[in-house]
Amino acid sequence: MQFELETILKIIELSCCPFGDDRADIYGDALALDGLGMVYEVNLHFGVTKQEAEAVMSLAGPGRIVMAKGCYSYIPGAGGGITLHNPEFSAIDSDASQSDLNYVFMKNRWIEKN
């Protein structure tokens, strides 16, 4: 059984590790905003071609806010967490202001930490 997650992400860090002739792994960290407005940390993992890696890196660089949809895994405990595997990224609708979303991430992340 596969579980899918669709969420708004704020990319914190994204690293590309090319290997072989045409493959690359992308690893990253992001903040996710759920339907109730809660902010939580997620890890990202992609196994892609180098051409696909360039597209992902250009759309979802650090600080960018994007929509993401993909299968996820959850490992409980201190070393675990939520990982999105090969998520599909898309741009945020024009109705949603980047500055408004940044404010929501900042405010709700602060509430969660206190």
Label this structure with key terms.
OB fold (Dihydrolipoamide Acetyltransferase, E2P), alpha+beta, 5 strands, 2 helices, 5-stranded mixed barrel, 114 residues
What does the model show?
With 114 residues, the chain is α+β, with helices and mostly antiparallel strands. The chain has a single domain, classed as Nucleic acid-binding proteins (OB fold (Dihydrolipoamide Acetyltransferase, E2P), Beta Barrel), CATH 2.40.50.140. The protein is built from two helices and five strands, in the order E-E-E-H-E-E-H. A five-stranded mixed barrel has the order 1-2-3-5-4. Strand 2 (23-33) and strand 3 form a beta hairpin. The longest helix has 16 residues, at 98-113. The protein is globular, with a radius of gyration of 14 Å. The model has no long low-confidence stretch (mean pLDDT 86).
Entry summary:
The chain is α+β, with helices and mostly antiparallel strands and 114 residues long.
